[in-house]
Amino acid sequence: MALNFNILGSAVADSAPDIEDFSINELMQMEVSSASRKSQTVSDTAAAAFVISQEDIRRSGATSIPDALRLAPGLEVAQINASVWAVTARGFNGRYANKLLVLMDGRTVYTPLFSGVFWDLQDTLMEDIDRIEVIRGPGAVMWGANAVNGVINIITKKAKDTQGNLFVAGGGNQERGFAGYRHGGRVGDDGSYRVYAKTFERDTFVSADGNRLHDDWRSVQGGFRIDDRISNDSRYTVQGDVYRKNVGNTVPAQTVAPPFNTPFNVDEHAEGANLLARWEGNLGDGSEFMLQGYYDRVNFSAAALSDSQDMLDIDFQHRLHPNSDHDLMWGASYRFIHSAATNSAAISFNPNSLGYHNGSVFVQDDITLIDDTLRLTLGTKLEESHFGNTQVQPNARLMWTPDPKHSVWASVSRAARTPSRGEAQANIALGSAPPPFTMIQVMGQPDPNLRAEKVFAAEIGYRTQWTDKISTDITAFSNHYTDLIMFRQGVLDLTTLTQPMIWYNNTREVTTRGIEIAGEWQALDWMRFTGNYSHLKIERPYDTNNPDIAGLSPRHRGSLRWQMDLPEKIKLDLTLRHVGKLAAVGQEVQAYTTFDARLAYEPYTGLELAVIAQNLFSPRHPEYRDSSAISLPGSALEVPRSIYGKLSWRF
Amino acid sequence: MQKGPSRHYETTGLKSPCCALGVLSGIVKSYLGKRFFAPQSRRYLTRNLVLAGFCLLLFGRQALPAESLSEAQIKAAYLYNFAKFVEWPADVLPPGAEILLCVVGNNVLDGELQALDGRKAGEHTLRFVQRGYADPNLNNCHLLFLGGSEQQRFVVTLKALRDAPVLTLSDIEDFAEKGGGISLLFRDNKVVFEVNLEPIRNARLHLPGQLLNIAATVYGR
For this UniProt entry, what is the primary localization, expressed as one broad class (chain A) (predicted)? Predict the structure, then answer.
């Protein structure tokens, strides 16, 4: 410990310290001010990429993965109720936003029923997340299905980086209480493991008149990870999680029998488990391969839908260097999905139990045209899905780095989203028609012959390091969608008083354009400003059957973070966030500006106390209304102002 | 939407930062009105589990620790130390010869390694050389630092070196794990290092034991 101060003393006062003067022991103790650390480099990627680091997550005070995603420029994150989020990039947001691919440690997390992500099921110990990579724009070649508007890749730390013990606990008005514990140790010569458990209880959101509703949320989760190394040329990872969630829900009236139109409160449950094994190795020629398999099971029991899903996925990738200018990658993947639903009046699947296969192959070549200056990436993916037709998804990217401080990139790609089982096989009660026709039930009806949605995307980006202290990253894009899966009005059935809304491939093209800007200013060694702004424009004629589609994303979004490392091991983070209004018929949400603050104090190394206050500007604000695809009055839950305290102890 | 009496103020759609004072007074007012935070739901009798009372801390006026090293400087300083401690076979590095420090990659460590050129490491002088990743003469180097841009192809570079007497270093995450000599990693706001003894032994180099004792991880013991 004393060394730490000696080294500071030994540095010459008014010139930069001479690196010759430090011993290894001193270097090991030396702390890099976290506010002074540059964002992890994405300057090498010919895509709109951003990395949210563990430090960013900790300093934001986020207690869930979707909340942490608010840190990334260009991502739309809106909370619908205490446990439900709408997350997407570049438009078409919604509770079941289906044009975004989300991966956790290589495992695809989405529900095959609706192609969306149940964000309340995706969790891990927040402290174990190493980073979250966010790629906006199509990423289908490398990543997989549904990577139409973006990819979110959540990567947890390796077990060797989570050695020892960690205990976190805290609570507040919204975070009623939470606790987590992790233990890590060594196995064998070169291997390590960790186990963790966490639990939390979150309070409900409020209605517009300030009363608590019924959307409280409780979770218990545990898991493990083992990383072992057999030799320089062979490594493996085995990891898994089990969880149980309890989510309060207010089910809207969907009954054709008494009591009519009376919402009722229920507690819904979800249990799940997953197990993943990955083997990575190097071959004699320096090429690298990866073979991965996982099994994922989720069981829901909810008022609207009870079902169980099993997913088995096998993935192989091989990266080779046929000569020094080519970095060639190819791979194949296979997935088996089985889902069995208990049909209810709200949702019924036909057939109610189905097992099906998906498969894909891809190849991508990264070609260096001029050393360290010009790079071309060409790739394509061939995807075969049970629903929809076979899809070819090609991609070309060019990256020009005239000098280390500037880089310009451009890309064109075609990507596809295959229809979900819900769109091809489910009857969904969407509620009753607007007054005065409330006796008419609106039913979403499937179309088994749906084709995949396609996008043609063109992007251009410019990253630059203006000075040592200031850097910016600008991306502009233009997306052209065809065959979007939407509703068309069917013929009103007067005998059952049912108005069908049938899924179909919309023939009209929809265009979205936007600009995303992120900037960083290292004002002082201990003070940093980061900001971002995103502009999105959706060009599409008004469609009475799908009025929400164009209005589900705000036109303007921006945030500003001010991070400070103060004396006495105090860290202060202030975040200002603005989201423009959502202006659709069934989805009117005012623009809002919120303010979060976090104050943390580390009295001893390894022990941190923090107070986090969120949404300080107003007692409550709505972010998104949970309406279905057609304009029905959704339940209007608002995010309350909140405060919580947190203790984390590493030992 | 009715406005009840509990609705003290609404600042959504804030127009300009000039409202900040108004917002602050609004916060105070609504706090005094006991509705700063939404009322607790009645579903649980348990009150807040933990809500540690944090006093407002008055910030001292002391300055922060004056000059400290950047991450790149710390890594360069590590490399300088390794250059002092590692022992090469006498036929590779005769007494008085220069230590050839080869660097592969684009904008490696913000140019901090270049600053080591001409410095004395023990009785040898360090000589900085920038090389291409496909350079066939990399096995003449004594120290070889692979920058972050080499992430995708460093295994090829390592394999091509075979057992040449080169100490390979990098700040790529899984460098030592995949057969590199020493990797410098950023962990919890500090830079730590990992050693893989297998390539170091095969290259006929020797690292002092104390170094291994303080390494974060030692592979291939």
Answer: membrane
